[in-house]
């Protein structure tokens, strides 16, 4: 049932008083427009989106996201620095006080500055940028993966709720039939056995309601555990909109940038950048040294000062460095292979999701047609039963068929909405 927000405001707009001042009418129109804008803004956020946002807020990836972004920013700052590592200060003092004690002293003060290897700084910057993109895409992929779990739990709850509604409707119909049968039994038109059959149908319907109620409560609890929301808030979010929280069919069914595929591509790019950087880093970083030395040979002798400018350049590499290069190259090759497999999987999943949506749409049309016919038939036989033209077993059979048809129609509506949601998931779209 569609709910009309702010009915009082709508009544004010429909009521016209000829003596009402123009400024008052303008104020009413302005207030109504503002209320409608607020209602429209609230309607834009579907209950499924609200549930997804609540679920994402409690995920470990969301909790650690700010810290990881700060780490990625620090990596970029380090790659843009003039030196691969901070400079170091060296201070040494040499004296003969412990042996000769003639006043000899040598004081040295120096600065050691590490240097980038040829091409190392550019490749470090490339790696830092690739890691930042990989972090963003991994976050997007984690959000999309969570969206799939939320959608699955949401539609499981909606199916259970639809089953409960159908069971309750069947129970109401069974009670009505039992009441009508009781009237005919008292009138002597039906036997006591017929009353027992009607009461048995009521008991069976009550059992279905209990079973459906337990299933609905379990599905709701699972959704609450996933999102961190209490059950009353979930029910309020669902009832505030007045529908099952369905999503619109995707407007663009072309191949979009899927978050999972983008995450693998960015991860492959980061692995390739890491492999290139590892190939550049053949050994430890060279160092530039600038030092000054003040020397005195004995007490009373003049002090001499000298300057030193030197370069420290390590030779070759090590087995550990070769292992790091091989592992980096292997990671890059593995990520590239995963990208190809993921692209093929997503293409198949999109086609299958679209086909399931079309099939669900056809099933819904057939189920609605059957439900319409079954309900009309039930009305005919209900009237004829009250007139004594139809026996009780026939009416029970017709009512069971109508209840099953209504249940199938409700389930088909949920299945179509879930299929559209799964189709959007396959396209990489969030709720």
- Poorly predicted residue ranges: 1-43
Q: Report the oligomer.
A: single chain
What would you give as the CATH superfamily of the largest domain? Outer membrane efflux proteins (OEP)
Main β-sheet: number of strands, strand sense, barrel status? 4 strands, antiparallel
Note the beta-strand portion: 5-15%
- CATH class annotation of the largest domain: Mainly Alpha
Number of helices in the DSSP assignment: 10
Q: What is the total domain count?
A: 2
Structural class estimated from helices and strands: alpha+beta
Radius of gyration: 38 Å
Pfam family, one: OEP
Keywords: Coiled coil, Signal
Protein name: TolC family protein
Family: Belongs to the outer membrane factor (OMF) (TC 1.B.17) family.
Name the descriptors:
431 residues, alpha+beta, Outer membrane efflux proteins (OEP), 2 domains, four-stranded antiparallel sheet, 10 helices, 4 strands, disordered N terminus, signal, coiled coil, MdtP/NodT-like, TolC family protein
What does this protein look like?
The model is unreliable at 1-43 (pLDDT under 50). The chain has a four-stranded antiparallel beta sheet, with no helix packed on it. The chain has helices at residues 7-14, 22-44, 47-57, 60-80, 120-186, 192-227, 231-241, 259-280, 319-386, 392-426; strands at 88-95, 105-114, 287-296, 304-312. The chain is rod-shaped and about 140 Å long. The longest helix has 68 residues, at 319-386. It has two domains: 1-44; 45-81 and 116-282 and 317-426, Outer membrane efflux proteins (OEP). The chain has 431 residues and is an alpha+beta fold. Helix content is 70%, strand content 9%. Helix 8 (259-280) packs antiparallel against helix 9 (319-386). Strand 3 (287-296) and strand 4 form a beta hairpin.
